[in-house]
Amino acid sequence: VEAAEVEAEAEVKAAEAEVAEVQVVFDEEEKEPPATSAPSETAAASALHERPPEHASLKTPRQAYVEEVCAGRIDGTAAGAAALLLPAAAALDEAEIERLLCECEALYRADQFLLAMRRLLALEALASQAGLQPPLRERDDIRVSTILRTEAELESQLNMIASDEWRRVAHRASRPSGGSARSSCKQYDLDTYVQELPGGRMAVKVVGVVPRSIECVLAPLLQPELYGSWIPGIKAALQVCRASNFRRFIHIKALTVPIPFLAPRHAVLTGYGDILSATSVMCYIRSIDPSSLPDEPARVAAAALTSDSSVAIDITGGFLFEVLSPNETRVSSTMQLDPKLKLLPPRAIDWFMKHVAANLIPMYDKMASKFEPDGQHAHLMVPPSNDAATYEELRRRLAVLQPDGAD
Q1: pTM as predicted
Q2: Least enclosed by CB within 10 Å: which of 154, 215, 325, 377?
Q3: Cα(337)–Cα(316) distance, rounded to whole angstroms?
Q4: Is 258 helix (H, G, I), strand (E, B) or coil?
Q5: β-bridge partners, 190
Q6: What torsion do the CA atoms of 355, 372, 37, 277 make, to the nearest 10 degrees?
Q7: Cα dihedral 147/151/157/163 (nearest 10)
Q8: How far, in Å, CA of 110 to CA of 66, rounded?
């Protein structure tokens, strides 16, 4: 019997070497039915944990998975992409887990943040089926903790955006500034919401439809030096470190508040973004301690930009961009800010932030119009600009998106 089992096991391994086939089985309660319509804000949150179908396969060498994704030959946003070329649970061992963790890390470094997270979750489910201990998320592995932090950050941000506890405090329909004749006669709605937070503070959300393509809407986010000209409350910004095309570390100086003897405010931000679903893109932003910057030159640069009297503020927020048509993008943004102003009561600060946030969408639209083909900053998106390759990669990644409601 033992000899027969050994022979059978050898046959299985030989078959796996010839044909890479994934057989990942999730419990019925874990599986989600395929979306039948374009996701709304609430549905977008469920897209974060998209699960692969019960069986998926691709006749490609397993070691080439990351290269195939980065080359665009595997659509990392497609249903089941995260489970392609994973082994069966019975064939999983510690050596294979290490190889697949390296694969997840490579995806993360290649700006495939959500695909890295989903593939890690699929691997975690396989390891659980195989009975391997300890569970992946309980291991002391910086790769696992970094990727799972993406899950926690984006899930929290999406839940905040989709929450039904928002209270609308302002509605405005206005004409966009600048842009082509095509967009100059369009109108867009702008809504401002507030939500009570523990401790008596408020969060602010703004939602509006910008009459620009998703490419033009995302383009300004890749130019930190321009933030001071369109993001309310920011006086100046400078990139101190670029981890990858779509993951940056940025130093910002806040606008000066006209209060005597008040020290200036600053923050070091980390931000990244990825395609969330077939119709949406997600970007996340949070302030960090400068000591956690990835290298010494970045820490030195951040210190050089900060005066000794400046006070660091805390910022958490992000954007959800939804493609409504080739020339219309819904922008939803939330922001939580602690400016460390003990002189003012929290309610006064929140009231000020609410009115500042209401200007975000109109100013965003004005800046996005400058990245249209005939716009002031269009040259930044094409050679010989240093950012031309980044925008080319952005266009390649955005090619999988479809307008809301499209087949």
Answers
A1: 0.80
A2: 325
A3: 7
A4: coil
A5: 172, 208
A6: -80
A7: 180
A8: 9
